Amino acid sequence: MTLPRNDGLTPDDMSAEVLSADVVIVGAGSAGCVLAEKLSREPGRHVVLLERGPGRWPGPEARDLRRLPIDDHAPYAVRHATDLDGLTAARGSAIGGSSVVNGGYFLRWHPEDFADWPEGWDLDAVEAAYSELDGGGDGDGGTMGVSPVPDDELGDAGTSFERYWSARAAVRPLDDRWPVTGVNRVLGNRSGMERRTAAQAYLEPALDRPNLRVVADCEVRRLEVSGGRRVTGVRTDRATFRAGEVILAGGTLGTAQLLLASDLEPLGGAAFLDAGEHRGLAVSYRRKGPAEPGMVLPSVVHTVDGLEIRCYRDDFAAYIDGLPYSGPMVEVTAMDLSPVRLVADGERVRLVFGEPSAEVTAAMRAGADRVVEMLHSTELAGIVVPGSVSVAAVPGFSQHTWGTMPMGVRTDALGAVHGTEGLRIVDGSILPTGGHSGPHATVMMVAVHIGNRLSDEG
Ligand SMILES: Cc1cc2nc3c(=O)[nH]c(=O)nc-3n(C[C@H](O)[C@H](O)[C@H](O)COP(=O)(O)OP(=O)(O)OC[C@H]3O[C@@H](n4cnc5c(N)ncnc54)[C@H](O)[C@@H]3O)c2cc1C
User: Fold this and answer.
1) Which atom of ligand 1 is nearest to the CA of 439?
2) What keywords are assigned to this protein (predicted)?
3) 448 is in an annotated binding site
4) Going by CA atoms, what residue is nearest to atom 16 of ligand 1?
5) pLDDT tens for residues 206-245?
6) Which of 218, 358, 385, 413 is the most buried (most CB within 10 A)?
7) CATH number at residue 307
8) Residues 314 and 437 in one domain
C-alpha cells in the first residue's frame, strides 16, 4: 500500500499549504500515528505528519512476528551507538515507527504504576485509554487487535515455564487485561502472525482526510525557535515547516536528538539528556531440539521485587539476521529504572549507560539464581541440555529508553514543554515513571489520552 497524496514529495512539489500547518507532528511512530488521527478529526485543523522512514507501507514480510527486522540492513530501522561492548540500540524508522519492528508484546502496566502520575491521569482515564487500544476484555481486541498468545503457540519452553511458575505464583486469567504479580501470558498486538502496527490501527483510516498530510523520507533536523522559547516550526533536509504547534513524537531517542540540536533556552545548551532503561541478565542454555517458530516472547513472570522474568522462545539469532548464535535465554529484567544518558553525537544520540543501583543488581542476581533453578527443574528437563546453563556476567538492556522529559516535571500533564510556547512532546520521552511491563502499550495509551483531550479542546 502506498500513501496516496503523500509519497515521494520533493521540495519542488511542496505547496505553501504543505509548508505551514496548525500542527506539525514529528515522527509517524507508535504515538505519532495516534495523534495524527485524533488531531485531524477536526476538518479545520491542518495537520502535517513528518517521518524520516521510507514512504512505503511496511508489508506483511516486515510485520512477521517470527522475525525482528532490526539487522544492519533492515529497511525500517536505524541503530544508535552505545558504550556497551558490541551492543547498539535499534529503533523503528518507518510509517508506524517501532511498532513495525518490535516484539509485539502489548501488556499494560500495573495499576499502582500510575500512583505518582500528574493530575488528570487517574486510573479511570488510564483504563479508558488502554481499553481503546486493547479492547478492555470485551473480546474484540481494540484498535490494536490485542489477544493473548494461544496455548498452541506457547512453544515447549513457554509451556514448561508457565507450568513451573503456576505452581509457585498467581496466574493472570488469559483474557484479563491488567497484569498480575505472577504469571502473565503475553498479550500481542497482532493479526494472525503479523504485528498490527500503530499505522494500520490509526493512520490508515485517516489517510484520505484532506487536512492530514503525511510526508515520509523527511528527517527533521532541528526546531525553529524564536527568542529561545517560542517554537515556530521545524527545519528538515527539504524545507522549513511553519506550525502553530510542533508535537515531537520521534521516540525517546529521536526526540532527544532534536531537543539537543535546537536552541531551546529551557534546556540551557545541554549536551545530553538523562533517561531510564530496563537492564536485564540473560540466563542462557542449549536446547535438546529445535524450537517451534513463533512470537519471540510468549510468557513472562512479574515478581514482587520488581523483576520481569522473560521466557524467550528461542535464540535471538533465530529472529535477527546476522546475529551470532548465543543460545536461547530466559532474561531477568529489572523494571526499576536504570540510568542511561543520551549524548549528542552527530545525527543520532549515543547511549551511555550508568551502573544499575546495588539494589537492582542484587535483585537481578537473585532472580537469575531462581531461573537457574527453574532450568534444572523436572518441568524443563525435556528441553535444556544438562550442564549448558550460564548466567551473563554483565547485564544487557531492553530497547525501552524512556523519561527524558517527564510529565509533571519538564512538561505538563498533556506534554506541553514547560518554559516554551508552541512545543509539545508525546512519546516515550514523557513517561514520568517506569512500570512493571514493557512500554509499548503505555506509550500508545498516553498518546490516546492526550490526543483525545487535545481533540476535545478542538
Ligand atoms: C526492536 C524493538 C523491540 C521492542 N519490543 C517491544 C515489545 O515487544 N513490547 C513493548 O512493550 N515494547 C517494545 N519495544 C519498545 C516500543 O516499541 C517503544 O517503546 C514504542 O514503540 C515507542 O513509541 P514512540 O512513539 O515513543 O517511538 P517510535 O515508535 O520509535 O516512533 C518514533 C518515530 O519518529 C521517527 N523520527 C524520529 N526522529 C525523527 C526526525 N528527526 N524526523 C522525522 N522522523 C523522526 C522515527 O523514524 C519513528 O518512526 C521495542 C522496541 C524495539 C526497538
Assistant:
1) 11
2) FAD, Flavoprotein, Oxidoreductase
3) no
4) 440
5) 999 999 999 999 999 999 999 999 999 999 987 899 999 9
6) 218
7) 3.30.560.10
8) no
